[in-house]
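Curious: why these numbers?
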Amino acid sequence: MLRRWSRRPAAAGNPSALADATGATAGPAAGPAGPAGDAGMSTVEYAVGTVVAAAFAAVLYKIVTGDSVVAGLTNLVESALSSTF
């Protein structure tokens, strides 16, 4: 069943509370930033995630460009090219 939500009238006491067609409330609306102490948390989470991803990429780059990995990949390609079918 599809329910449509509408804002309660301001005279009802809480202008930001949501009510469905029967008048039952869904609880107070937290607004776009969520509860009062969470303002800007999405931005911080994205920033931390970006820094972690960049650090992980740097570690992978160091591993892949290391001498042992390059030598191993070279040997693998050479053995694949020299094999007979």
